[in-house]
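Cross-posted from the bioinformatics board.
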Amino acid sequence: MSELKPGRSFVSAQQVAELAGVSRSAVSRTFTDGASVSETTRKKVLEAADKLGYHVNHLARSLIHEDSGIVCLIGADINTPYHSRLIDAITRRLQAISRVAMVINTSGDSASVEAALRQTLNYRANATIVLSGTPPASLINTCINSGQHVILINRDDHLAGPESITVDNTAAAREAFHMLHRAGCRRIAVVSSNAGTPSLVAREQGFEEAAREAGLAVTIARAGPTGYGAGFEAGRLLLSGSDRPDAAFCVTDLLACGFMDAARVEFGMDVPSELCVVGFDDIEQAGWASYQLTTFRQPIDQIADHISALLEREEIGPATGSRACFHAAPVWRRTVRPK
Amino acid sequence: MSELKPGRSFVSAQQVAELAGVSRSAVSRTFTDGASVSETTRKKVLEAADKLGYHVNHLARSLIHEDSGIVCLIGADINTPYHSRLIDAITRRLQAISRVAMVINTSGDSASVEAALRQTLNYRANATIVLSGTPPASLINTCINSGQHVILINRDDHLAGPESITVDNTAAAREAFHMLHRAGCRRIAVVSSNAGTPSLVAREQGFEEAAREAGLAVTIARAGPTGYGAGFEAGRLLLSGSDRPDAAFCVTDLLACGFMDAARVEFGMDVPSELCVVGFDDIEQAGWASYQLTTFRQPIDQIADHISALLEREEIGPATGSRACFHAAPVWRRTVRPK
DNA sequence: GCAGGCGTTGCACAAATGTGCAATCGTCTC
DNA sequence: GAGACGATTGCACATTTGTGCAACGCCTGC
């Protein structure tokens, strides 16, 4: 089908036109949807293009259209189960609507983050999706001020302009409390991290509030960055005291896995007979036989679908600053005693 | 610092030039390293650029240079712990050398994959990195024929042209056998998947070969796609028979986690006293207290560093079709009995 | 004071593409 | 057969940027 070209560089429409014996415009129109080309020249062009290995240069095309087709994903800790699943779902949706994802990893030092973000603006991304609460607000403002279409996921700070997609963390956290309370738990701990992400804070506060309404106080443990290690350490701290909690709400499944492992391995406790645990996110590991964690499911597919819809609608009108809020449904497994 | 522009569209160098009262060339030179601009005009330009929120359009810049700064990552199952860590490491390195990653998810149906790949070529990516063995070889050939700089990771098929980075799967698998053999295991199973990826096949064969040399036969279980579920199912199949194996080499940590859980939860077996397990990859979960899996570490940082070096060297000369092979070192934890 | 040289600047062209407009070609109808 | 109409095609210009070349201005040295 295709042959190796002599030169190193890419093939241009001009070369295809010469080989096909038509004008460059004809080549351009062949690869433009809805343009007027006769069937015979179209065939000649496609043949020549295939022979030369021609591919339309989107960089040049984007110079003319406003639409570059690039959507930028900004996030930290992208190796986390929740984030990687989110990226998986979003990239798939993007490809389905002929967009392509550019990933900016903000885990590095903040100087490189700034540079990376600038890179993104430089590529005239069609939209910028902020995956987590971690990237600093100043970065997001830079995007907005540059006229970028910004979509925030699970970032409850109320900035004007960008569209936001959230999960009803507060409601879910309240429900989590009632699940544990109904199971008879009274000495309840909240396992969180020192990340201070808006959505994590909302979960902490929602839970605490519901507990207060029920006349209970909760102790909060924050033993490091969000992850397995911090959960394990929090378990060590909370369970070594004299009055052990009989339940824990972990604001993240990773924290929950760490916490459960500390309870079982370090203290020989049984879950759920001695200790009930509720997590959040419903990462894959929550369903593993070793954990069977009762948790709340992040509606990742719904989020991805919504993003897809927002981007498709963008072709027509400008961003509207809409806000979508999805429900996180409980997933009952085996870390909460049945009532 | 920056103001909201009236128009919707991006700011061009022309507008900055007009505001600064200089020629467009001066603006261009201000943002080009090593170009000759006086300090006074440079300052004027930077001021105007900041006021308007100007960012150099890399798409246009890439029309002139060969270098688009875009590096494309192609992979399937990118939500897998191993792949997401790889993506994390690579994106970070890329940003450090002023490149940006474009992620193509090949998990969808093959039609959309083809379309996505075409997209990539369209963006004149600087290089294409193939993360897994799953993308079909025809796609890779399309890349190569289009003059792309292709880097294959852990893909042992011997294509001419692309540079390849591999892990010495065979040696590690052989070592895995000897670890189990030395621990006294004699009825050894290999837990694999039906993916048929070259690196997975190499691990199977390396292990089997070492076993044959030691006069042992191994049984291979392939119970589905590579992942926790297939490992669990393989455990169910292997351990329900009359002569249970006393050890298993799982060609992936995810398989190992599923296998271990099946052994413990479904059959109440103890690891490692009744059953020794060795995995591969050293994903984060392998170090969790519930597993403490003895495994082989994928040298992800070395791989990422090597990619970074290849790309930086590319600026000077063309690709050389080099092959790098890294060692996967054993990580001793607690799923193999000490000798 | 003048010539030479150096640093800076602007013009114009290059890169690859999409598209409006006019010209051309073919076909259909009367 | 001729006119008209519709489909198709090519020209030229647009998008944004980098850069060679020539000109310009300023400073220095004689």
